[in-house]
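Exercise 3.2. Students should predict the tertiary structure of the chain below and write it as structure tokens, then compare their answer with the key that follows.

Predict this chain's 3D structure.
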Amino acid sequence: MPGKFCVCLTCSKDNTDKATVAFVVANAAVASDKETLVFLSIEGVRLSQKGFADDIHETGFDPLKSLIEKFVKAGGKIWVCSPCFKKRNLVEGNLIEGATIAGGAKLVEFLGAGSPSVSY
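Answer key:
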């Protein structure tokens, strides 16, 4: 099933259930041969930092760290909202594998190419 798919995630430890489900859906999309993007914004940008997701594990799901690693290994992309990242004084040198700082214009370009999107 070629095509694109975008998951927008605004949560991290403030709503671990949403953060987990977002990466479950992202993994399903990338496994369906979709060019899949997870766009982290607001509190979600914290997940871009090494070690931050290590202790997030919702009952009934794989640990979030494992879900993120599986997503990246399958070819998924993680874009991190630049202004949200800067606002929280996070460290670009501490980005997890597969994460890239990106602005809203880049997200609009991806979505403008006809990508469906879900938000958590």
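Discussion points: The domain at 4-119 is CATH 3.40.1260.10 (Hypothetical Protein Ychn; Chain: A,). The chain has a mean pLDDT of 97.
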